[in-house]
Design a protein that fits this description.
The complex is a heterodimer of chains A (129) and B (383). Chain A has 129 residues and is mainly β. Helices cover 9% and strands 43% of the residues of chain A. Chain A has two domains: 48 residues; 81 residues, OB fold (Dihydrolipoamide Acetyltransferase, E2P), CATH 2.40.50. The radius of gyration of chain A is 16 Å and the shape is globular. In chain B, helix 7 crosses helix 11. Classes of the chains: A mainly beta (129), B alpha/beta (383).
Chain lengths: 129, 383
């Protein structure tokens, strides 16, 4: 993970900052230059609601080497209460207990590390509520 | 636009081709296509490949292949649209001939996946790096999430997923160019190693090397060469959000629906008019979802259709992936879209041997990239 590339995403990964379109009200996460819904270019920064519902999930059992320590791990698509959908790992859960429709919330966690001497990379994961 | 035809085809065997380089296999397929077409030159060429830079450390693939094929100084362009690279390369060749800019164009595709690159990481570059892959998701994982949602929403079963793999291996056992020419049982699929729940190893297309090429030409050229020309009735392409989570529905592939709508309109045909289709079965669930989104089956009924034999070579409904599909024939990603066209070329010329679909007249090829962020569809017509 190149440090500059990581740094650019910090507002989204640490604080769930999204761009709310001033034209149509669509909340875009991550923020965009052009709103895909109304083509508007003016946005206000808002923070996403961190609670939502699990729409689907899987358990990654053959993963990238970067995740070898935690493989297998569950990942799902979550619809947050403000309508935004994201992909996130589901932490602290027994995969057997997961269900589509389950309520979850996003928490701050370590996601990956950049090799033995690189930076630690953080962001959001979901936990069941 | 004027009529465009396919007049020749050639491909390597798909598989682990350890002794051959990416240049070797592309040139082998291209020479074979040129010879099959009987042309003495090509005006330009397109090379579909997903990620030669990461797989073998080579970019600038258009020039590389023109050089090694010995056809410089013709225009030669590398086309990339992830796993749809081959289909999009074919579309570029089609457009170039249809526009009148060229008479004879080579459309090829290639991927060399077994030279030691991290295949999982390389394929994952077709998804959103910062908002999907950062979280550890893989391609089997993305399609597994589609499968879970489809099973939850429509009652699709584990057995129905397995039926796709079993059928495609049965078809591939009859294809001399297929990577896996062995039949498999549903029990073998359902007891193979779990990759991403509910998808197991035998739900997944393999890691492959391979190349494929076709010669696209104007009708005038075909008449002069007295070739059995297969006409391109429609070429349609569509895009969707790069991230699976960005879509309204997780169980419908919007790019497939959009491209299909355009293709049927251009060809003035309906799903029931199609005699056979090569579809992008990178995972068993993909064939099921695509068979619905192309309009062959009602939404949610694709699994049941696969399990009840409505997609087999012998069926009169819609034979899918007579070549063995990506699952059994192999999936050298950039070559796949061209290999689909080659299967239609053989079927519509009545030269598919033991895989031949009786009275095949209209064929469709559906090739997609990523979790469906791009899709390209062609409809071809035989005699």
């Amino acid at each position: 993970m190149i440090t500059a590339r990581y740094h650019r995403e910090i507002p989204q990964r640490y604080r769930l900052e999204a761009g709310k379109c001033s034209g149509c009200g669509e909340v875009n996460f991550p923020p965009r230059v052009v709103c895909p819904k109304c083509k508007g270019k003016k946005f206000e920064t808002v923070r996403l609601n961190n609670e939502g519902t699990l729409l689907t999930y899987t358990v990654v059992r053959v993963g990238s080497d970067k995740f070898s320590k935690e493989t297998p791990f569950p990942v799902g698509i979550i619809e947050l209460n403000d309508g935004v959908r994201i992909t996130a790992q589901i932490a602290d859960a027994d995969p057997e207990d997961l269900k589509i429709g389950q309520k979850v919330k996003l928490v701050f966690r370590r996601i990956q590390e950049d090799g033995k001497s690189g930076i630690l990379c953080y962001g959001y994961k979901a936990v069941t509520v | 636009m004027r009529d465009v035809v396919v007049i020749g085809a050639g491909m390597t065997k798909f598989g682990e081709l350890w002794s051959k380089s990416i240049k070797d296999i592309f040139v082998e397929a291209a020479l074979s296509a040129i010879e099959d077409a009987g042309v003495d030159h090509i005006d330009s060429m397109y090379v579909g490949a997903m990620s030669p830079g990461l797989f073998v450390g080579q970019e600038h693939l258009g020039a590389v292949m023109a050089d090694y094929l010995g056809v410089t100084p013709i225009p030669a362009t590398h086309v990339e649209s992830a796993c749809a690279s081959g289909g999009v390369a074919f579309r570029q060749a089609f457009l170039e001939v249809a526009s009148g800019a060229s008479e004879i164009v080579l459309a090829g595709g290639v991927e060399k996946m077994t030279d030691g690159a991290d295949v999982t990481d390389t394929l994952a570059t077709a998804a959103d790096q910062e908002y999907e892959v950062y979280q550890g998701i893989t391609f089997p994982g993305l399609y597994a999430m589609i499968a879970q949602a489809h099973m939850h929403q429509y009652g699709t079963t584990r057995e129905q997923l397995a039926a796709v793999a079993v059928k495609n291996h049965r078809n591939g056992s009859k294809n001399p160019n297929a990577q896996f020419r062995s039949e498999i049982s549903a029990e073998q699929v359902m007891s193979s190693t779990m990759v991403a729940d509910p998808l197991r190893l035998l739900d997944c297309s393999p890691v492959s090397d391979g190349a494929a090429a076709v010669i696209v030409a104007s009708m005038d050229v075909a008449r002069k060469l007295r070739k059995n020309a297969i006409r391109v009735l429609a070429s349609a392409q569509a895009s969707d959000t790069i991230a699976l989570h960005g879509r309204k529905s997780i169980t419908t592939l919007g790019s497939v629906v959009s491209a299909a709508k355009k293709a049927y309109k251009a060809a003035d045909l309906q799903p029931k008019d199609v005699d056979l289709a090569e579809v992008h079965d990178c995972f068993t669930i993909a064939e099921i979802v695509v068979s619905e989104d192309l309009g062959f089956f009602e939404k949610g009924k694709g699994g049941e259709a696969a399990a009840s034999g409505k997609t087999s070579i012998e069926c009169k409904i819609i034979p899918l992936n007579t070549s063995g599909g990506l699952k059994s024939k192999g999936h050298p990603v950039g070559a796949t879209g061209i290999a689909q066209i080659i299967e239609l070329f053989e079927q519509l010329n009545g030269k598919a041997g033991a895989r031949q679909v009786a009275d095949a007249h209209i064929g469709m090829a559906q090739n997609m990239g990523g979790s469906g962020a791009s899709c390209v569809i062609h409809i071809l017509e035989g005699k």
